[in-house]
From TrEMBL:
GO molecular function annotations of the record: ATP binding
PROSITE patterns: ABC_TRANSPORTER_1, ABC_TRANSPORTER_2
Domain ABC transporter: 5-264
Top-rank lineage group of the source organism: Bacteria
Protein's name according to its UniProt entry: Glycine betaine/L-proline ABC transporter ATP-binding protein
Organism of derivation: Streptomyces macrolidinus
Family: Belongs to the ABC transporter superfamily.
PANTHER family in the cross-refs: GLYCINE BETAINE/PROLINE BETAINE TRANSPORT SYSTEM ATP-BINDING PROTEIN PROV, GLYCINE BETAINE_PROLINE BETAINE TRANSPORT SYSTEM ATP-BINDING PROTEIN PROV
Swiss-Prot/TrEMBL keywords: ATP-binding, Nucleotide-binding, Transport
InterPro entries: AAA+_ATPase, ABC_osmolyte_uptake_ATP-bind, ABC_transporter-like_ATP-bd, ABC_transporter-like_CS, Gly-betaine_transp_ATP-bd, P-loop_NTPase
Amino acid sequence: MSSRLEAEHLYKVFGRRQNEAVERLRQGADREELRADGTTAAVIDASFTVEPGQIFVVMGLSGSGKSTLLRMLNGLLEPTAGHVRFDGQDLTELGAADLRAVRSRKISMVFQHFALFPHRSVRENAAYGLEVQGVPRAEREKRADEALALCGLAGWEKSWPDELSGGMQQRVGLARALATDADLLLMDESFSALDPLIRRDMQDQLLELQKTLKKTIVFITHDLNEAMRLGDSIAVMRDGRIVQIGSAEDILMRPADDYVASFTQDVDRSRVLTAGAVMDTAVRGDEADCGCETATPGTPFVELCALSARLTHPVAVLDEQRELVGVVPRQRVLDFLADGASDAVPCDAPRDGQVIAHA
Ligand SMILES: Nc1ncnc2c1ncn2[C@@H]1O[C@H](COP(=O)(O)OP(=O)(O)OP(=O)(O)O)[C@@H](O)[C@H]1O
Ligand SMILES: [Mg+2]
């Protein structure tokens, strides 16, 4: 199966002599050198692929080029060089009308401050994308109501936006994007304006929705904890360039450079790591029958730590077919607890008979 979305050597330069700037960047010039000439290299040589159903997170500091990259993915900005392919179709080669059609039917954007129309009901707001597509009223209201229900807003269809809290308004934005049936959701700091508890709630809701909807999502954030919770794959941007692409574990355990590592200092490792990321894979098959505790590769490492008080054997990690795929040695759990993360880890002795849950 081909990738759903593909960015190939994308560049976006603002200001003077853009093509010349791209040439200089290709030869290794950086942002600072170009800035002296009044040219901004917003995105430099960005390449990645996003598979169907994946959440691809782009993170980086303010000004690193995230929003510019996102706007090239739906054709709102034309790349100075490079290509964007969506389902194999090169967006950079489409005419304006075709591009508009792709953008309104297949791609939806959710922004940080979602502007709802104050004099339209919640339902009409959620149906807006469908209205733009020319979908008849009865059908668009039905689909809007379904999307609102998915986002936990059933019963609010006839309310006005100002009757909703900030978090609920943001959900209307999400519902608007979902109602259009777009396969590709582009989310630019969509949850950043929400307070922390509601933000976490929205993250959970998105992950829950994603289990059934299986959209392809590009999610921008400057928050690494959010990136790690949501991202199947995470790209870290610095000064216009993608400096690392990897899983949460890759970023956390194998940061490409000091810049990436500096992001990871504040991350609550216990919530990100899984048994699969820390297990030893060179194991003998018969250890599965040792009567020890078992986990799946997706079991949060924090759950292993909860058992640490009475662990005597390694934890066996079993896949869906209950084949042994690795073990987590007891010492690794203890080392981890000693490594400063213990505050976040509940390490009381577990209740009798507790066995690590299978996913
Ligand atoms: N239309 C524009 N014209 C000129 N420069 C621009 C334009 N849009 C963005 N830039 C510049 O490109 C760089 C990247 O901006 P961008 O908005 O993509 O960053 P970002 O990572 O989304 O930042 P933030 O986290 O603050 O949203 C910045 O230096 C910005 O000033
Ligand atoms: Mg931005």
